[in-house]
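QUALITY CONTROL LOG
STEP: pairwise intake check
CHECKER ROLE: data steward
CRITERIA: each record must contain a sequence immediately followed by its structure tokens, with no blank fields

ENTRY 1 OF 2
RESULT FIELD BELOW
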Amino acid sequence: MIIDRLVKKETCLAVIGLGYVGLPIALEFARKIKVVGFDINESRVELMKKNIDPSGELESKDFEGCDIEFTCKPEDLKKVTFFIVAVPTPIDEFNLPDLKPLLGASKTVGSVLKKGDYVVFESTVYPGCTEEDCVPILEKLSGLKAVQDFKLGYSPERINPGDKEHTLSKIIKVVSGCDEESSAQIAQVYELVVKAGVHKASSIKVAEAAKIIENTQRDLNIALMNELSMICHKLGINTFEVLEAAGTKWNFLKFTPGLVGGHCIGVDPYYLTHKAKQLGYNPNVILSGRHINDSMGQYIAKNTVQMLIKAGKVINASKVLVMGATFKENVEDIRNSKVVDIIRELKEYSLQVDVVDPYASPEEFEHEYGISMCKEASQGYDAIVLAVMHRDYQQLGQEYFSKLAGTNPIFVDIKGILRNKLSGFTYWSL
């Protein structure tokens, strides 16, 4: 049994892709069994060899006591029997699935795959992708047949960047296999590290679909709140006051409006809609929600400009401070940050826009988006946009923001955190 050989350290497990998802998984397993951590980025591998997480999520102590070998050399994977693929699955400029990292990882694994090995994919994909897109590559490069010569599985990742409470071991893990034997073996392997237990899906497609609808459901609920905020704005009432009142009912779902970026909620629904269209079905509700959420940056910028005009400001002479640039609070990750949409739209109106963020790398931000960040805020701002509520901003109040502001200033509080806490500003939130 594969589980016995792993526990006895007669063989080892590999994690392919050591980003936000892969590295925590690799280290968790490495406290129990021998692990090879593989990533194609050599500079990231060198940092991990020094107990440094390139993503900034884990601390040096999290590497301690781990039996792990970090490498970027495919030949080091030849000794591996159990492979976990945890590479990114982004979308392209046309909102279509970009499978290049996933197919590349499949080629890497296929080149070293042996009879009796296990391959489990964790990357978020559309239902059918594992068996229809990845398996043919594995079979072609290895000369082996899936199910017959090697086993296959899918176990969707549930890592939440910046979340120190809902960690890998505390979240029920959905697992699946290509047959009953593989399902049972894969479940046992994950049970080594997942204290919350596992849920065995009946098939790989079911597990793939379960992952994709988790984030699609959240996306749609947030889209509903965003649309509600637009209606409330036209009604002249505060959305968050409405939600507080509605939230007193026992079965009201407590979602709030906001920017939906990142590499999960803002991306995963497009994998589902892509597959649905291939099957001849147009997913109107999902696509409508995506359209609403993808347009929120422009909506916020437009309202900011309208308030500046009403305040008598000369637009091309006005200064705006945008606080927060990452895709969510308390992380360094700038991928698919919808704050960028706000910044670009404001710049389209010829406004001077300063951007600050205590977590984001200015170099990475400029490389990714062509937008320069400031080391610190200055003064005399006509508008302040609190875009991402980092913990560093939570203690800031009236005195701090008043020092930054010019005369008759605007305050845009996207998440409504400072409602009824500021004076001297024209205040607006979603």
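ENTRY 2 OF 2
RESULT FIELD BELOW
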Amino acid sequence: MINLIAGNSSKDLAKKISKKLKANLVKSEVKNFPDGESKITLKGKLSKSKTIVVQSIYPPVDSNLIQALSLISKANDYSTEVVVVVPYLGYARQDREFLPGEIVTMKVLGRLFKGAGASKIIVVDIHSKIGLKHFKIKSENISAISDLVKYFEKINLRNPLVVSPDQGGKERAKEFAHEFKSEFIALKKQRDRKTGKVKIKTEGLDKVVGRDVILVDDMISTGGSIIKATEFLKKQKCKRVFVACTHALLMNDAEKKIKKAGVTKIISTNTIPGKTSIVDISSTIAKAIK
């Protein structure tokens, strides 16, 4: 029987995956010292077979990263094959040197995961696939689009239109629309790299009028892009606006601000646990592991 170690950040998702794989579920307990150090203890026994470690790296990113590496290292003491599932991979935005002097943190992560003893890494909808090139182990990026589409197929929408908030997410929106059997558009936006301010440059769109809109994105952090897109689409006289995303970080009251902008509902997957994480991707992850 294979082992599955449930990291502290992905307890529920790990439990669901272990049931689908009929794996030996080993829970982990984390206690924090007053100075912030994590003390991690495994609550169960590992057999000398293949081991899967499930741990998302969302805020607090550094703590969850150290915990992931520690679990990999422990698994490596027992198993010759350690498959690491990181549903949400923090630092994925730092996959290249955008401005002089910036450190490519994904390169650092690649070395750390290999050094800890990982044989393979599986991630879900990574921010940029370029990032996985920094991992000198087997790597796989899987998509949550099919799971999200299944959810939206159950909602009664009025002539739905799939929208990407920017050109960078055009292919994602196209794929979503193809599975959802609907039209799609991608908005054009400009972001100032230094201030982070976003402006939408797309002209008025007749396609939007009177239609329910699904804004599709890989992740929502502060919600700035989603808010700008929603305000823009509302001016084009769309009906309801729904948000479909894989990873809902929702920092700094983002959910409240997004709803205030006019979004009816935010739907995300359980790569990051939270109120909006209503789409389960355990089956998709289990298939990738098999």
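INTAKE CHECK: passed for both entries
DESCRIPTIVE NOTE, ENTRY 2: Residues 6 and 14 are 5 Å apart (CA to CA).
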